[in-house]
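Anyone? Bumping this.
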Amino acid sequence: MRKIWNVIINEYIKIFAKISTKIMLICIVLLAVLWNVGMYFSSRNNSYSPESYELDFDARISEYSGVDETRADMYRFMKEIGIESLEDWRYNAINDITYELEDKQAPSGQEEKSTVSEWYKKAIRNNDYKEYIKLRMKYISGNNALTSEERGLKLGSLQYLLDHDIPPSYSDYRYQKLRNLETNKIDLARQEQMPLDSQDKKTITKLRNDIAIDEYTLERNIETYMVPDDGDNYFDMNGFLPVFSNSTMLIMVINVLIIIVAGSIISTEFSSGTIKFLLINPIKRWKILVAKYLAVLTVGIIMLVIYYVFNLLLAGIFFGFGDMGAPLLSVVNGKVHAGSSLLYVAWKYILGSLGVLTMATFAFAVSSLVRNSALAIGLGTFLLLSGYGAVFILASGLHWDWARYILFANTDINMIINNQTPFLGHTVGFALIVTAVYMVVFLLTAWDAFVRRDVK
Amino acid sequence: METILKVSNLKKNMGGRKIIDDVSFETYAGEVFGFLGPNGAGKTTTIKMIMGLLDIDEGHIEICGFDNVCHFEKAMECVGGIVENPETYSYLTGMQNLRQYKRMRKGVTEERLKEVVKLVGLENRIHEKVKRYSLGMRQRLGLAQAIMHRPKLIVMDEPTNGLDPSGIRELRDIFKRLAHEEGVSVLVSSHLLSEMELMCDRVGILANGRLIGVKPVKELIMEAQGNQRIVRFTVNDIESALGILEERKWEPFNVTENSFNIAIENDQQLGSIGIALAGADIWLLGIERQSHNLEDIFIEITGGGEQIA
């Protein structure tokens, strides 16, 4: 073991003394910088607020007057009471009541629309959101257009606002959540009322999970949290956690870098002739092979760790470290479990590194077999870049199910977890077994070529 | 004498051709053994089998009593050497290169590294990147690599390549000292035969994969001088002289317009040639004995001269 360890140290010295390795490490840091800077600017563009447009009341009034008097009146009222921010609860309130009073249904049966409107306006003028909420409750309880469930839901969330002194503004995450809960619950009820055979199981599960998480976070006052990827929440959100978590998408680049290291670690010894000086030491060839393989794997891990740490730091710098301790909330059988988000992202990195490991092993085997760096690196990179595309064409275009046994159908575990593979019933266990079989073949090839063949 | 390297009945085929055919020899502690042969004779192949780089088809190699296949690590602890060119990691310094080997061998200290660096005369440049070294300097670095762990057997493939005359002299002195004073067995291959003559105690001559003979250098030269001497005759009438030689069935070679060489077996024959030529009225303008070195013997034995012609 001591001998293997010493050879590993030798390999590290050789790898890290090379300029190319230093450039690679710089590339990894640059990659993290690029990702975070890119996400930072794209988040600023996405969250472009319509504030200047919406709050330019004179322009809006002239736009709607004569076309849509109700709306023009609405903006006049906003201008009158002097709303300065979209986060002001009164902005939402005025929008809501305008929309509701436009409704064909009579507001409550007894009072005239104009009367109701005056009451609302009074509460809004006084900046008294509690009074406003009470009026809303009164209006909703008399609204026969809603089902009793819907009424119950809406009243419930309004009561919650009253009880917890929450203004009905989207600037408060609890209000957002209450509104989310309302719509999700109504959706769920609608789905469940449908005949069994036309129910969409996936949607129902998702609604239930969302509801469970919203209730859980509302109960515990958790503002920021993370949910495990389910395949369609890429780019949904910005902020520390999603940007940090989605940095795993660029692990592909690290894959290419590790192919370069793995594809040259044996073959450069041959091309430079130093193999003859390496193998005349009192160390059996298989020990040297094992040491070189371990060196490749650990260099891969080092690259991933560097990428992880820099993403963590940069995401923190760009989006704030405040969310670092946010929990990971996952729903299992209807119950919400809280975990660590940082660990979850680390886990995503580990799953992502399985692909790195496989490609490194492949390039290592080719390097040992053909003793030619360019061929090993070229073949490795080519297969890495084209492999999944080829599998996808075979599976989706030609409907060849056996393509699931091709290595590249199984290397991206994150994708399989997110159900993004073109194969039915493609499980992580299956992928791991297929990958393991390929790895064994690669390693045996490397072994045979390195330990048994002559060094000419 | 202690046997350090024992090669027995070594055979190797490559591409259906016998590269090494039944080679056996031994080297002893305290001697420099020269491994001679023209290019393609199988010197490097044999050395690579000794160093464990090539598989052995048949036969055995023992180093310090350890079979180099069954007890590879034990056997290799006793060997140091250079196979073909002194290859290095050019992006590392000379010292970093040496430390690579230090980590893979037993009992090499930093002091020992300094000692060997001084011995090979690289102390001023050892912390420079090897890519700036000349071939001679890399050869010295390779030598330091080969001797750092005080091996009992040092195997050097064409060690004088790229060295200047003074470097060759230093190398010769190092090998002689290691062998004669420290009791190391040194195996040197070369085609620079004059060099071997000065350096080696014994030589093994290899041609077409076969070991033609193993003899002490002195004995080999004496033997050759005893049996066959080459004498150069200068005459005034070459044609008549050649006619007389043909009559007597003596075979001249290297014939010029007024001289020829002839290999004679003893003094009597030399006398007879003189009398025969003088009797035919041919003037003997000069009779000189050609100096005879390993190179001539080597070419005679291996038939290298004929191949070149």
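Late reply, but here is one note on the structure posted above: The longest helix of chain B spans residues 165-182.
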